[in-house]
Design goal:
The complex is a heterodimer of chains A (523) and B (183). Chain A has 19 helices and 18 strands. Chain A has 523 residues and is α/β, with parallel strands linked by helices. In chain A, the strands form four sheets. Chain A has a seven-stranded mixed sheet, with helices on both faces. In chain A, strands 14-15-16-18-17 form a five-stranded parallel sheet, with helices on both faces. The radius of gyration of chain A is 25 Å and the shape is globular. The two termini of chain A are 33 Å apart. The mean pLDDT of chain A is 95. Chain B is 39% helix and 20% strand. The model of chain B has no long low-confidence stretch (mean pLDDT 90). The longest helix of chain B is centred in the C-terminal third of the chain and has 19 residues. With 183 residues, chain B is α/β, with parallel strands linked by helices. Chain B has a five-stranded mixed sheet, with helices on both faces. In chain B, strand 4, helix 2 and strand 5 form a beta-alpha-beta unit. Classes of the chains: A alpha/beta (523), B alpha/beta (183). The interface between A and B is large, with 47 and 44 residues. Strand 8 of chain A pairs antiparallel with strand 2 of chain B, so a sheet runs across the interface.
Chain lengths: 523, 183
């Protein structure tokens, strides 16, 4: 490619950054809007899908300990799963650079919540960078590895849906060949028993103070002076783009590329120069709280919503007092053109499954995947959906509270989600004995995020053929005595199996197996 | 500043159309941003893709009233996107009607008050019904100031060699339909 200027999706640019930084190991679990980072990375370097985000991050910690630059990318709720190792990896620090990308989803485009992952950076005490376009996705990924190794710390890279899935102009740099740092056994640094952890906590605090000083003068943060000195804006990430779009060149912007730790000097400089400061940040009042803590008077969440994404018009209304009433046409359209929500694809095996569930009028503990769409009308065949694996664990609790519902209540979970977080819930059902019936919808792929292979597929991200997980054997090994397999195309057979297992007063698993309709014949 | 909104249903090829437009605009040394929809919303749901170009583009999102061109790959979705249209904006709309479950017969066609292009039929004529997105690009090309060569280069950058001939034909058929003022 002669022209180094190209249009790249944010996720692709992060992957390019990994390549240019000489990253040698990538392990992730798919999750919109983060998935493509790992898929693009797999084209240029070693990358794999792990069964869940905790495993992925722990694998990356291992690669870092061994001396390689390592990475894991996940969606915001994935960071909840991976939080445990990261809180303590903050103490141990790294050997090879370790960078973790977390993609938030303001507006819940493809998620069950819109948590603000910046709080994790503060809670874990890990530096967090936040790019605002694809070029910064590339540059900040490289900067994150540099920070990680210079300060001996994992570094978080915060993305959001509009950053991950927007294309913007990128000029690529040179690639770096991966190198392996030397490995030295170091009990005090890497073995976090209490005595060592106390020492490392102190080291963490010292390190943070140094990073905080660097943050004050870091080029990752900048003030863009406007043509007037009336209004100032403090912002980061996609909100920076929306703010500039909305408010134009007369306003001065303090654009933060590092959102943990946060600087004070550039904010004081802005406050000393402009009449009034707004903090423009989607979701929580994270930067605003920091400003107030340092005595900087700002306006923000009292007048801007903590919900969803901001639009340029919304900001003009709130900040400039403009009035952008929705046109009568918009009202007309709302009434006359009904919403077109996502639906299960034609020929989807889950349709057969939910047909039977609906016919039997079952109470359904649901889970995360394509089959969550079974909750939509006209199926409406779901009673709860919280997080990966919750269907199995919650069914147990539900039946302990309502034992007589055992013959009309099920858990519904996909194969990938079951491997991610369902196994332990099933173990609990066996151990604490509830007469639960768990349906594992096995389409042999991670469907919703775009057909990523998983341990049940028999193929890796790199395309190697490997042994596939035997779900029946795993369930039996966990102690479930009643394990049956059914075909969702055979409604009668599925109904019979399901009715029989529901009637049984002991744990049972119904594996409903049929490849994803979009992939049939391809696998 | 050029603002284009592509409205369609998941699976209709909005993203490919946006990629082609992105390359085309980038080749003129402009700043370009493309906003795409991936994930859950792709499962047969509404998909709005946005392409913006100019000296400097900040937000990847087009605001209501800003779109110079709306490419509607489907009637309901084209209608839903109409608030994006600017005063002098142009709508290029396929007559494709993908029914919305549980929707009444809110016939989309009569409400826009303009002619449509039968992109699906022209795509079939070109040799592949899936090239309806490229038919619409061809129709939209009439409203934009790029040479045939530039379009062809942009198409070739994103379409596999084995599919390029069908798509070039689809593009030409769309362009001709627009020139005959069938839209």
């Amino acid at each position: 490619m002669n022209d180094k200027r190209s249009l790249m999706m944010g996720n692709e640019a992060v992957a390019r950054g990994l390549f240019e930084a000489g990253c040698a190991f990538v392990s992730s679990y798919p999750g919109t809007p983060s998935t493509e980072i790992t898929e693009f990375a797999a084209k240029d370097l070693y990358a794999e899908w792990a069964p869940n985000e905790k495993v992925a991050v722990e694998a990356a910690i291992g690669a870092s300990l061994a001396g390689a630059r390592a990475f894991s990318g996940m969606k915001h709720v994935g960071l909840n799963v991976a939080a445990d190792p990261l809180f303590t990896a903050a103490y141990t620090g790294v050997n090879g650079g370790l960078v973790i990308a977390v993609a938030d989803d303001p507006g819940c485009h493809s998620s069950q919540n819109e948590q603000d992952s910046r709080h994790y950076a503060a809670a874990m005490k890990l530096p967090m960078l936040e790019p605002s376009d694809s070029q910064e996705c590339l540059d900040f990924t490289k900067a994150a590895f540099d920070l990680s190794e210079r300060f001996d710390t994992p570094v978080l890279l915060r993305l959001s849906t509009r950053i991950s899935h927007s294309r913007s102009v990128v000029t690529v740099g040179e690639e770096t060949s991966p190198t392996l740092r030397g490995y030295e056994k170091n009990l005090g640094k890497y073995v976090m028993v209490p005595a060592a952890a106390r020492v490392r906590h102190a080291a963490l605090e010292e390190r943070l103070a140094v990073i905080g000083k660097e943050c004050e003068v870091s080029e990752l943060n900048r003030v863009e002076w406007g043509t007037e000195r009336k209004l100032g804006v403090v912002t980061s990430g996609i909100s920076y783009q929306t703010a500039r779009e909305a408010l134009g060149d007369s306003v001065s912007y303090c654009k933060l590329g590092m959102v943990y730790p946060l600087p004070v000097e550039p904010l004081l400089e802005l406050a000393a120069t402009v009449d009034e400061i707004w903090v423009i940040e989607e979701l929580d009042d994270y930067i605003e709280t920091h400003c107030k803590k340092h005595g900087i008077k700002v306006r923000g969440k009292a007048e801007l919503s903590p919900l969803g994404e901001y639009t340029a018009l919304q900001l003009r209304e709130a900040i400039l007092g403009e009035n952008h009433k929705e046109s009568p046409q918009t009202d007309f359209l709302k009434e006359n053109v009904p919403q077109r929500p996502p639906v299960l694809c034609p020929g989807c095996p889950h349709l057969g499954t939910f047909g039977v569930i609906k016919k039997l009028e079952l109470t359904v503990m649901g889970d995360i995947g394509c089959y969550t769409l079974g909750a939509s009308p006209p199926l409406s065949a779901m009673d709860m959906c919280v997080c990966m694996g919750a269907s199995v664990s919650s069914l147990h609790g539900f039946l302990k509270a309502r034992p007589d519902w055992f013959n009309k209540t099920v858990a519904v979970i996909g194969d990938s989600t079951f491997m991610h977080s369902g196994l332990t819930g099933l173990l609990n059902i066996v151990y604490n004995q509830s007469p639960a019936t768990v349906m594992i919808l096995d389409n042999s792929i991670t469907g919703m995020t775009g057909h990523q292979p998983n341990p049940g597929t028999g193929v890796t991200l790199a395309g190697s053929e490997v042994p596939s997980l035997d779900l029946e054997a795993v369930c039996r090994a966990l102690g479930v005595r009643r394990v049956v397999t059914a075909d969702p195309r055979d409604s009668k057979g599925l109904e019979e199996s399901l009715t029989k297992e529901l009637a049984a007063a002991e744990p049972s698993v119904v594996i409903v197996r049929r490849p994803c309709a979009l992939l049939e014949g391809k696998l | 500043m050029i603002n284009i909104v592509i409205a369609g249903v998941g699976g209709q090829g909005s993203i490919l159309a946006a990629k082609v437009l992105g390359s085309l605009l980038l080749s003129r040394r402009m700043d370009v941003k493309v906003n795409e929809v991936h994930g859950m919303s792709q499962r047969g749901g509404s998909v709005v893709t946005m392409v913006r170009a100019g000296d400097k583009v900040y937000s990847p999102l087009v605001s209501p009233g800003e779109a110079d061109i709306i490419m509607g790959l489907e009637l309901h979705e084209a209608m839903r996107a109409t608030p994006y249209l600017s005063k002098n904006g142009k709508m290029i709309v396929s007559s494709r009607n993908i029914p919305i479950r549980q929707a009444g017969q809110a016939s989309a066609s009569g409400l826009i008050g303009q002619k449509h292009i039968d992109a699906l039929e022209l795509a079939k004529e070109a040799g592949n019904p899936r090239s309806e997105n490229v038919v619409l690009l061809g129709a939209a090309s009439k409203a934009m100031d790029f040479t045939q060569d530039e379009w062809e280069q942009a198409l070739r950058a994103h379409i596999k060699p084995q599919h390029i001939n069908v798509n070039l034909k689809a593009f030409t058929l769309g362009r001709e339909a627009a020139e005959e003022e069938r839209v």
